[in-house]
Amino acid sequence: MSAPVKHKRLPNHAVLHDDESMDRCARLTREGFYNLLPKEVFWQARYHYLKDHGYLLRPRYDPAWKPSWVGTNRNPKFCEDSILLIDYQVMDAAKVFDQELVAIKSFLTEGQELHIAQFFTAIRDPMNHCVPVHEILRDPYDPGFALMVMPYLRPCNDPEFSTIGDIIEFVDQTLEGLVFMHKHDVAHRDVAVANIMMDAKSLYPTGHHPIRLGYTSDGMYPVSPLPRAGRGVRYFYIDFGLSLQIPKGASSLVIGDVGRNADVPELSDDVPYDAFKVDVFALGDLYSKEFEGKYSNVEFLLPIIEPMTQQQPAARPTAEQALREWEKRRVDIQDSLYRWRLGPKSEPTLERVVNDTVAVAWEGVYRLKQFVK
Q1: What are the two backbone dihedrals, phi and then psi, of residue 270, each rounded to the nearest 5 degrees?
Q2: What would the pLDDT profile of 93-140 be if each residue is shown by its tens digit?
Q3: Distance of CA 261 to the CA centre of its chain
Q4: CA-to-CA distance for 98 and 114, rounded, in angstroms?
Q5: CA distance 201 to 209
């Protein structure tokens, strides 16, 4: 975990400036407005167990926690220990040894999730874009659950993609990752933007808060990312809770109306369908909704989106065929296009003209710098 930026004084927004505001916050605190939610109590109960195993939760989850703003004029909203957990299944923590951030997931031990996650972790392959597992801890209170320790990752679309090159790199890695999983007979079965995350440490050299993503690690100051280009951002598939490893030679037909993507046409609780072809559709549909549907200058994606999202599963390519087609198409994309900004389809015409003019100017500066090197 990067060291947080040090600031000399509290910003104006972090301070309560009148007695009425302070009295109101004191009353809300007494009434339990800032108390831990039931889902957070789960993690508070495991605070010392995790600390004993080398993982430190944020101060809010220490059983001895007292709100840091009590008796001060600080605004609780901008006190780090007021920030609530969003996803009760996953908790952020820092390694005691070096303060590196990790994510800890509580999961049921029955099913294939643990096996698949560990199976992929053991494989060293540049095409492996499955989140690695650092450690599995037994749950100290429930033998049916365990705690999976993984790298802390950030949503793949936060911050938003900003250039054509950002999208090209994302497509490269996500298609590679899908081919890798299918090569090892695993269907993810829940390919969605929420289940693809990124290691964004290079975009935030001084760190950021693990829950309040747009702020510094103390939750107080806004923080801005660096551009993705040239910073080695790596994307990972996460959440193998619905995944299935199919035995060699067995049929890939499954049943179950499962997964986040309700637009997959063949999903059914009764009629068998090919789990691998569902993954292909879901990834192509992600490209369509997140990129082609939002931006006006990503037409180069259509030759892979259209076959991947065919209504008939038999008409879709395999993941490997989709990757090969993409690699052929990508060769024809000019280098200068990689640096071109993404143009939102919702962008007003005048604004688009101004932004494109600025982009052309920056491209000219880039070419001039390359010329004089």
Answers
A1: -125, -40
A2: 999 999 999 999 999 999 899 999 999 999 999 999 999 999 999 999
A3: 17
A4: 26
A5: 12
